[in-house]
Amino acid sequence: MRRPRWGKSVTFFGNSGASTESPPDSEEQPQPDLTAATASAIGPADGRRVVVCGSDRTMLRVTTELVSSGERVTAIVNPDSRHYDRIKELGANVMGARVISESLLRRAGVDAADDGAPSTARALVLLDNNDVHNVHTALTARDMDPELRIVVQMVNPRLGKHMNRLLGDCVVINGPSLAAPAFVSDALEDDELTWLDLGGRRLVAGQADLIREPHLTVLADTTSSATPTLLPLSSSDPDGDIVLGTGVRALWGSRDVRPAGWFMALRDILDSRVRKIAAVMAFLIVAGTGVIHYFGGIEWWRALYLAAGVVTSAGIDDDKFNDAQPWVKVSAVLVQLTGIVLMALLTAVVVDSLIGARLSRLIGGVRGRPRNHVVVCGLGTVGSRVLEILTERGVAVVGVDQDDEAPGVQTAHRLKIPVVVGDSSNEETLRLAGVQRCQSVLAITDGDITNLECAIMARDLNPDAWITMRMFDHDLAQRVERRLGLGHSRSVSMLVAPAVAAAVANRRSQVTVPAGRRVLLLTEVTVEPGSIAVGKRMGQLDEAGGLRVLARQDLGEAWDWSPTGPEPRAGGRTAASEREARSAGRAPAAGRAPAVERVPAVERELRAGDRLAVAGTRSGLARLLMATRAQQSSASS
Fold this sequence. Notes:
disordered C terminus, alpha/beta, 23 helices
């Protein structure tokens, strides 16, 4: 496969942990099946229903995913939705309603009894595109059943961050955040980086020279690329290690594409019409200056002032001009009338230029002739997130959208990314974006046909460009890829559906990080009541080369990513420094109470309900699952 000019690469993983490419096979010995272990930990299904609310294409995909995984689904759908009949054909129990009310939720299964009996529904999935409707429905359902599992899709990520305060235990899904990394991965055509959500943080794993410092941990020593050392305690070549961090270094020191700016905007406003009018006015001023000087006997600078006043309709207020010959005065009047007409034409042309191409569009356009960049066609919520990721990677990018008030246009202006406002399926619009010299094209508007037309036009302009389309219709996407060879196609709803299904089933997300021909698994594990891990310390769970605990979340507290050190005290003193002072015979500082020693997280005993963020091999993780799972069979025997 052809590699892009920037030479570095990235593969993104969403919250569901599903990668865009298959990871390399591991050369480890056969290990226990983690799928079976996970299923055993979850237990058999209780037969209760999952209530799904929505009407768009994501609703159809999520319902398909849940039904195919064996869930009993009750779908609350707007009867006007074009997916209504299709959802009913899937086997879901469909309830048609335009407005979701408390009585409707009760009939759907959200009916927890006062005596503590659970609802008929065990989970509620809210997929409305209106965040206000989702929040209202979620709050209503939470009042009806405090134990109901709620999975809600939020368009506004800032509002989604505060949902836990409103609803307590819930899962917030953001479609653009899940789908955008997959599109970026296609645009960059490589897989050296792995993005994941772990321990309440957005993390990235990859080569040390690509990851921004400080590094959280070393995952593998790749001194020997064929058989790297996993989870080493030290490394002989730190720059070549595979590490875990919170961000990436930019690929380029500067971008090759810049917005047009004010100078280019003024050049576009002063088009040929303005230049012709200005030339005629300049000729009249020059000619009038000569006439007034020679026939009126007025010095040059004063004559220029008078001529300019006549042509620009600024008026004439000069005593010497009153003594001029009659024909000179008549000529001045005619020139003044001509100047009035020219000024009116000039005003009309400038206003027409500003209205026909708004100033924000002119300033945000493309400067010069960009090349080797990524063109993003469609700057909605997904396109906006794509721009942010590409900018973080230091990749040159140009945005295209026909709506200059789209969310991604505002993001582009904030990030100083050039934007071409126009129809992405139009040849002239794509030429302005530099498609004929670009590296990749992402056609990610909301319309399948628009994306298809954009891809076809981009292929005609640049046969070497790597093209990725956003298409909902799965059958159409397959036929287009097979017959036209336009590159990859992806669906946002298909990328989101597995994450929603995993959240409904409370399945543990698992991300695979390749290291040579071996792999590491990063995931979160919950310590269950009655398990072997209860009462043990974190350090006792680590295995050299097999398992490493990265972070810990005590029940009801925030994640602790620095579990190996004591907590600093006020004034820069720690519990350790207080112990040293006492051993040296020094009293604690005056006016300060002795610090209460806090046991580091790595030394504290694990309790039921604690969560661990871990990295390990398949065998190491399988042993950890056995240790953290409740020992029900042993207790019964």
